[in-house]
Design a protein that fits this description.
By secondary structure, this protein is α/β, with parallel strands linked by helices. The chain folds into two domains: 149 residues, NAD(P)-binding Rossmann-like Domain (Rossmann fold, 3-Layer(aba) Sandwich), CATH 3.40.50.720; 129 residues, no CATH class. The strands form two sheets. A seven-stranded parallel β-sheet has the order 4-3-2-1-5-6-7, sandwiched between helices. It has a four-stranded mixed β-sheet with strand order 9-8-10-11, with helices on one face. Helix 6 runs antiparallel to helix 15 and helix 15 packs parallel to helix 17. 46% of the residues are buried.
Length: 387
C-alpha cells in the first residue's frame, strides 16, 4: 500500500528534491497534494507529472493564473485549488494522506503545519520557522495526538538518527555542525562590504535565497538551536554548535559515557528527505561519489560569536521564551528581504534583529494569534528602523 504524501513547498529546493525521491520510489510513495508560495508555473509542471488531487498557492493572484490554465483544459478531473495561508491549512485538513512534508519557508507555512498534526497526519518538517515560532504548541499537540514530527533538516535528521544509539536521559549534549558559510574567514571590516551576490554563493550546499543568506549570517544555525530545543526536548545548555567546513558530518550526539555518535554523508538533501518519508525503513539511493579518502581531512572549529552574534541571540530567545522566538524569526526574515533588495547592509542584519528583540514586550504563554501579532509587529519594526 502506497504512503500518501502532501508536499508543501513543491517548487523550492527541498520540494524539487522531494519530487526526485518520489519519482524513484513511486511503487511506495504517492503525492496526493502539492502546494507552493507563488510559483504557479512550477506547481503546474509538477501537477502534470504527478496528477495530485489538490493544489495550493499562498498567493491569490498566482492561484487565479493557475485556475485560468486549468480552464483551458484538458484536465480530467481537475485538482481542487486552495488559496492563501488558511487555504493551505484547509488543503491539509481535507486531503487524506499519511504524511505532510512541510517545506514552505517562513511563517507562511505555519498554519498548514499545525493543520497536519491536528488532522491526524504525521509531519516531515523542513520548515524550521514553524518550530521556531510555535514549537511549544506544535510539539505539545503532536504528543497529545500521538503524531510523529520527523526532521528533514540535514542537521536535525542526523541528531534524530544518532539519538537511536541511546536513551534520551543518556544525552550529555548535541553538536549541530555548520559549514560556516562563505564568510567564515572574513573580518568584520570585510563583512561590512558584503553584497547579496557574494552571500548567495554558498561553498557547500545549493539552497534557496533566504536560507543561503541565513547560512552566511549563521542565523540558520541560530534557528536550528531553537528548533532542536523543541524537537528533542533538550535544555539550551545541552545544544552546541561547531563549525565543520566540509559539511560531511551533519551533526553529533555526545552521550554521558563519553561516546559520540554522528551521521556522515554527502551534502545531499535527498538523503534526509527520503529517510523521513520512508522511516523507519531505509531505501536504496543511487550511489554518489562519497569517499573519505578523497576528502582527506575533516576539520572543526568553534564559532566566532563576535563576528556572528546570531548564536548568542538564539540562546537569549530561548531564555526569554514566549513570543520572543516569533519576533526573532520575523525580524530576521524581514532583514534578509531588505538585504537581498540592497536596502540593508549585511552587518546591519545582526544589529536590527537584536534591536527589535530588545524593543519587544514578551508574552510568556502566547496563543497562535499572539504569535502572528508578534510576527507582524517585528516585520513592521524592521522596516521602520531600516528607514
Amino acid at each position: 500500500m502506497k504512503k500518501k504524501i502532501i508536499l508543501l513547498g513543491a517548487t523550492g529546493s527541498i520540494g524539487q528534491s522531494t519530487l526526485e525521491v518520489v519519482r524513484r520510489l513511486r511503487p511506495e510513495l504517492e503525492l496526493v497534494a502539492l502546494a507552493a508560495g507563488s510559483n504557479w508555473q512550477g506547481l503546474l509542471e509538477a501537477a502534470r507529472e504527478f496528477r495530485p488531487l489538490a493544489l495550493g498557492l499562498c498567493d491569490p493572484k498566482a492561484a487565479e493564473a493557475l485556475l485560468k490554465e486549468f480552464q483551458r483544459g484538458p484536465w480530467e478531473p481537475a485538482p481542487r485549488v486552495y488559496t492563501g495561508m488558511a487555504g493551505l491549512a484547509k488543503l491539509v485538513q481535507e486531503t487524506p494522506a499519511d504524511i505532510v512534508l512541510g517545506a514552505i519557508s517562513g511563517a507562511a507555512g505555519l498554519p498548514a503545519t499545525l493543520a497536519a498534526v491536528e488532522s491526524g497526519k504525521h509531519l516531515a518538517l523542513a520548515n524550521k520557522e514553524a518550530l521556531v515560532m510555535a514549537g511549544s504548541i506544535l510539539t505539545r499537540r503532536a504528543k497529545e495526538l500521538d503524531r510523529q514530527i520527523l526532521p528533514v533538516d540535514s542537521e536535525h535528521s542526523a541528531i534524530f538518527q544518532s539519538l537511536q544509539a541511546g536513551d534520551h536521559a543518556e544525552v550529555r549534549r548535541i553538536h549541530l555542525t555548520a559549514s560556516g558559510g562563505p564568510f567564515r574567514n572574513y573580518s568584520r571590516e570585510q563583512m561590512a562590504h558584503v553584497t547579496p551576490a557574494q552571500a548567495l554563493r554558498h561553498p557547500t550546499w545549493k539552497m534557496g535565497a533566504k536560507i543561503t543568506i541565513d547560512s552566511a549570517t549563521l542565523m540558520n544555525k541560530a534557528l536550528e538551536i531553537i528548533e532542536a530545543h523543541w524537537l528533542f526536548q533538550l535544555p539550551p545548555q545541552k545544544i552546541k554548535v561547531v563549525i565543520h567546513p566540509q559539511s560531511v558530518i551533519h551533526s553529533l550526539v555526545e552521550f554521558v559515557d563519553g561516546s559520540t555518535i554522528c551521521q556522515l554523508g554527502p551534502p545531499d538533501m535527498k538523503i534526509p528527505i527520503q529517510y523521513a518519508l520512508t522511516y523507519p525503513q531505509r531505501r536504496e539511493m543511487p550511489p554518489s561519489h562519497f569517499s573519505l579518502a578523497d576528502i582527506g581531512q575533516l576539520t572543526f572549529e568553534p564559532p566566532d560569536e563576535a563576528r556572528f552574534p546570531s548564536l548568542r541571540l538564539a540562546y537569549r530567545v530561548l531564555e526569554d521564551g514566549g513570543t520572543a522566538s516569533s519576533v526573532f524569526n520575523a525580524a530576521n526574515e524581514a532583514a534578509v528581504d531588505l538585504f537581498l533588495k540592497e536596502k540593508l547592509a549585511f552587518l546591519r542584519i545582526f544589529d536590527i534583529v537584536e534591536e527589535v528583540l530588545g524593543a519587544h514586550r514578551v508574552i510568556g504563554s502566547p496563543s497562535l494569534e499572539d504569535l502572528f501579532d508578534a510576527d507582524r509587529w517585528a516585520r513592521e519594526e524592521v522596516r521602520r528602523r531600516a528607514g
